[in-house]
Amino acid sequence: MHDDLRSAVSADSPRIRDELDRMVRIPSVSAPGYPPAEVRRSAEFVAELMSEAGLDDVHLLEIDGAHPAVYGEKSGPAGAPTVLLYAHHDVQPPGPADQWETSPFIPFVREGRMYGRGSADDKAGIALHLASIRALGNDLPVTIKVFIEGEEEIGSGHLVDFLSTYQELLQPDVIIIADAGNWRIGTPTLTTSLRGLVDCKVTVRTLKYAVHSGSFGGIYPDANIALARVIASLHHDDGSIAIEGLVESDADPLDLSLEELAQQTLPVDGLELMGHGTLTSRLWTRPSISVLAIDSVPISEAINQIVPVASAKVSLRIAPGQNPKEALTALTEHLKAAAPWGASVTVDPGALGSAIDLETTGPVYDAYREGMRLGYGAEPVEAGMGGSIPFVAAFRERYPQATVLLVGVADPTSRYHGPNESVELADIESAAVAQAVAFRELGS
Ligand SMILES: [Zn+2]
C-alpha cells in the first residue's frame, strides 16, 4: 500500500535537493545586526516554492516589526481534517567562519548529507512539508495549511501576535511542527516532551569601587571569587542540581550508549558526566544549569585591583511538569542565599519558557506512526528533547483542541546552530513519504 507515494517522492528527489540547496543559499539570519532584507527575500522564495507545489492563496503574513511569515493552503474533501504544517525559514548566524569546513551559505553535499546553515534547522522542515504535498498531487485527502515562520531563531517574539491576528486563517485540527529531529539517522522519531527554559543575570558586588589588591587583599574578597562561589553552589559534587524543590522524573532509557554520546558530541578525554540517573532522564526530564556568559574584567585589561563587580548569565532548563515562574523564583532565591562573605547579590530575571509534555495516543498519532513505518521502513521511537521550543506552548494555548505532533529530520550529528550544520538527505525523503502516508490515513 502507498507505493505510489514512495515512487512519487523518489521521482521528486532531484527537486527536493535543488529546492533545499536554493533555500540554504539565502542567508536568512533573523538576529539583530543582519540584513532583514535577506529574511524577506527568503520568505518570498519560500512563497514561490509553495505556489509551485500547488498551494493556493500563497502570501506573506505580516505583523508590524516582525520578519514575514509565509502562508499557503490547499483544500481537501469537504469534512476532511485540517492539518497545519509548521516550519521556519530564518536561520542562526553562521558563527565563527574559521570553524566551517565549507562556506555556510554555499551548500555542499558529501556522503548523502547537505552541509550549510539552515540545511537541518529548519529549511529541511520546509522541504519535507512541500515534498509531502507534491507527493499527493491533486489527490489531497486532508486540507493543508502551511505556516512558515521567519523569526524562530530569535525566540518567536511575534508568534503569539501572528496566531491571534490570523487565528481564523490558521485554524487547524492537527498541527505538525517539523522543527525537531530523529533519535538517530534513519530512525523515525516522535518528540514527546521538551524541557522549558528560564534564565537570569546574577550580579555580585563586593566593593563600590576597585581598591588596590596589595593594600587591601586579605580582607576584601573580589567579586570574581565571590561569583565563582555563587556559581559553584548550583551543583552538588556529582554534578546534580542543588536548587531545592525543582521537578524531576525518569525518562524512557531508549538505547543511548556512552560511546555513541561521545561520538556525537566530542568531549575531552576523561570527561565525567554530571548528574545521576539514566542518560535520557538527565537529558530530558531533569533540570540542568549552564552558565552562558560571565562579565568581568577581561584578562587583557587585568591590573592589580580587587575587582568590585562581576556578573553571569545563568540558564536553567526545567523538566516537564515544572512551573517556570516557580523555577525562576527557586533559582533567584538560591543565588541570593549563596552569597559568601556578605557580598551583595542582585538577580535580573530573563526568559520564562514552559516545558512541554505531549499526549501521544489517538488516531492522529496512529496515522503518523503508520506513515513513519512505511516511509522509513523502521519502527518509530518516542523521544524527549532536552532543548526548548517556546513556540509549541503558543500553538497549544491558541488551539487547545488540536493534536500537536513534533517531528523533523535533524539528527544528533546535525550540529544545528553550530558550524558545519548538516542534514541527511535520504531522511528528508523518508519523512516526506511518512507524512504523505499519514495525510492519507488521516483522511480515510
Ligand atoms: Zn529550528
What does this structure look like?
With 444 residues, the protein is an alpha+beta fold. The chain has two domains: 3-194 and 355-443, Zn peptidases (Aminopeptidase); 196-248 and 287-353, Alpha-Beta Plaits (2-Layer Sandwich), CATH 3.30.70. 34% of the residues lie in helices and 23% in strands. It contains 13 helices and 18 strands. It has helices at residues 3-24, 36-52, 123-136, 159-165, 167-170, 213-216, 223-232, 258-265, 279-285, 324-337, 363-376, 390-398, 425-443; strands at residues 56-61, 69-74, 82-88, 108-110, 113-115, 143-149, 174-178, 189-194, 196-205, 211-212, 288-295, 305-306, 309-318, 344-353, 356-357, 381-385, 403-407, 422-424. A six-stranded mixed sheet has the order 1-2-6-3-7-17, with helices on both faces. Strand 4 (108-110) and strand 5 form a beta hairpin. The longest helix is centred in the first third of the chain and has 22 residues, at 3-24. The protein is elongated and about 80 Å long. The protein starts with a helix and ends with a helix. The mean pLDDT is 96. Bound molecules: zinc ion (ZN). Residues 88, 121-122, 152, 179 line the site of zinc ion.
Fold topology:
Elements: H1 3-24, H2 36-52, E1 56-61, E2 69-74, E3 82-88, E4 108-110, E5 113-115, H3 123-136, E6 143-149, H4 159-165, H5 167-170, E7 174-178, E8 189-194, E9 196-205, E10 211-212, H6 213-216, H7 223-232, H8 258-265, H9 279-285, E11 288-295, E12 305-306, E13 309-318, H10 324-337, E14 344-353, E15 356-357, H11 363-376, E16 381-385, H12 390-398, E17 403-407, E18 422-424, H13 425-443
Parallel strand pairs: 3-6, 3-7, 7-17, 8-16
Antiparallel strand pairs: 1-2, 2-6, 4-5, 5-18, 8-15, 9-13, 9-14, 10-12, 11-13
